[in-house]
């Protein structure tokens, strides 16, 4: 059983090549999803956005290509290739594509006790 899906196993690859930017769209590719973690690749067309929302888990983004603008609890961050940001659980956050960009999103959810 593979826990990470939608990608070839045991093959070196560039994550940025695993999702394609399409003008006027946000494209996503789920790599893992369970009660503990969610890992998703995203490609944003220029000007696309995910409006403000929150999550029950900590969300970490890693920009793979281009530049993205992230707003977390009212503070704005502009990230380029190789930069990461952690958006804490339960804090409102949003994403805007100042230009076309790609990112890896990892969300770690709290353990059920």
Automatic annotation (TrEMBL):
Q: What is the lineage of its organism?
A: Bacteria, Bacillati, Bacillota, Clostridia, Lachnospirales
Q: Which organism is it from?
A: Anaerotignum neopropionicum
Using the record's annotation, list all stretches that form the Cupin type-2 domain. 42-107
Mind telling me what this protein is named?
Answer: Cupin domain protein
């Amino acid at each position: 059983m593979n826990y990470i899906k939608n990608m070839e196993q045991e093959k070196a690859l560039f994550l940025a090549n695993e999702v394609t930017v399409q003008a006027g769209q946000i494209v996503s590719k789920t790599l893992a999803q369970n009660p503990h973690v969610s890992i998703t690749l995203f490609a944003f067309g220029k000007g696309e956005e995910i409006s403000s929302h929150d999550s029950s888990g900590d969300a970490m983004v890693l920009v793979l290509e281009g530049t993205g603008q992230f707003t977390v609890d009212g503070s704005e961050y502009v990230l380029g290739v190789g930069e990461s940001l952690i958006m804490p659980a339960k804090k409102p956050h949003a994403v805007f594509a100042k230009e076309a960009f790609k990112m890896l999103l990892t969300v770690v959810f709290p353990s059920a006790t």
